[in-house]
Automatic annotation (TrEMBL):
Record keywords, A-Z: DNA-binding, Phosphoprotein
Pfam families the UniProt entry points to: LytTR, Response_reg
Annotated Response regulatory domain residues: 3-113
SUPFAM superfamilies according to UniProt: CheY-like
Gene3D superfamilies xrefs: 3.40.50.2300, LytTr DNA-binding domain (2.40.50.1020)
Alphabetical list of PROSITE patterns matching this protein: RESPONSE_REGULATORY (PS50110)
Sites bearing 4-aspartylphosphate, chain numbering: D54
Protein known as: Two component transcriptional regulator, LytTR family
Native organism: Epilithonimonas pallida
Lineage top rank: taxon: Bacteria
């Protein structure tokens, strides 16, 4: 289900968008606003994943509003084509010209649904572990190493210092489960979440996590993986 919030200074435009959304499956309009300032005061407390923003509004336009929104996908609507380039610079889902047609709005929602699906996929993965089938949130994963007990398994270190054993999982398959932009393999036996790299050189990295003895965790970068580590960390 896509939950959206509408912001448009024209009440007729809001009513029309609500009507179009009501004719589509799996689309729910949670709330609508005709004042950008009120919208910004409330949006962070609303359970929604899409914001449909009109661009041309008095006081504060939709482009300015979009820059202040976090963790929401944005679809712009406007009658003015000159905003297109600036709108896409903000990495929005779509830019829909007024008068809005149902088919065109449907296309925008389909794009949004695809992006939201990818986002959900990147938030967690499920795998058989020493605890049974477990849902693991990727933002909690610090690094992964090959198990010393069984090389087919992987020891996964979490940011709360707990450990989970991933059963019978290769690094190749693990790379398909994890968001590639966040993880990099540094040698044959270890992979790290780049968000937890505190210091790195050509031969080693230091993680922003202490070992059980209280010392910073240091890991070696092998010659085979140096170039891909350097490339990933330079982005």
């Amino acid at each position: 289900m896509i939950k959206c919030v509408i912001l448009d200074d024209e009440l007729l435009a809001i009513s029309y968008l609500k009507l179009l959304c009501s004719e589509m499956e799996n689309i729910e309009v949670v709330k609508a606003f005709n004042n950008p300032k009120v919208f910004l005061q409330e949006i962070n407390n609303i359970d929604c994943n899409i914001c449909i923003l009109d661009i041309e509004m008095p006081g504060m336009n939709g482009l300015q509003v979009a820059e202040l929104i976090q963790d929401k996908k944005i679809i712009f609507t406007t009658a003015y084509k000159e905003y297109a380039a600036e709108a896409f610079d903000l990495d929005v889902v779509d830019y829909v010209r007024k008068p809005i047609k149902k088919e065109r709005l449907q296309q925008a929602f389909e794009k949004a649904e695809k992006l939201l699906g990818e986002q959900r996929k990147n938030q967690f993965f499920e795998w058989n572990t020493n605890l049974g089938k477990t849902r693991i949130f990727v933002s909690d994963v610090v690094y992964i190493k090959t198990s010393e007990i069984d090389s087919r398994d992987k020891d996964l270190k979490l940011k709360n210092h707990s450990e989970i054993i991933l059963k019978n999982l290769s690094f190749k398959n693990l790379s398909e489960l994890l968001p590639q932009k966040n993880f990099v393999q540094i040698n044959k036996k270890e992979m790290v979440n780049i968000d937890f790299i505190k210091v790195f050189s050509s031969s080693e990295i230091i993680l922003d996590l202490a070992s059980s003895e209280g010392n910073p965790i240091k890991l070696n970068i092998s010659d085979t993986f140096k170039s891909q580590v350097s490339e990933k960390l330079s982005k």
